[in-house]
Design brief:
Oligomer: single chain
CATH architecture: 3-Layer(aba) Sandwich
Shape: globular
Distance between the termini: 17 Å
Radius of gyration: 16 Å
Protein name: Phosphopantothenoylcysteine decarboxylase isoform X2
Amino acid sequence: MLDDEMLEVAVVTTERAKHFYSFQDIHVTLYSDADEWEMWKCRSDPVLHIELRRWADLLLIAPLDANTLGKVASGICDNLLTCVIRAWDCSKPLLFCPAMNTAMWEHPVTAQQVAQLKAFGYIEIPCVAKKLVCGDHGLGAMAEVGSIVDKVREIVSLHNDRQQC
């Protein structure tokens, strides 16, 4: 069982994601695109996306919208989050929680992109059907937080067991 007090969490946000939460509601370290460039002034300075990939034992992308899904599947890294993902050490777990409108979820390219992420070794926490942000009801909503936490606990436990062998 995972001891929650052992976890240290940092959040990497995209500029568009800032629309969905209030900065005051985030009680952990929060990084955004601007932080990437504040640290780095010249050659040999720390590069935030590399420092974050070294620091983290697990990466959880929740929610993973259609835009970022497309970027990650294609290798595009044009913001802090996608740079962390592109630099990610694939020997460490990366979990993703797709979340988008049902029409976007059902588009054929979405299945291809999700399959590509799985081919990279990333772990999908499947979306669910419920009322979506747009007001529609259907498949495409991010998995429930409890389900995500349970999956993270499972993966951390498995990863820790493998490292002890």
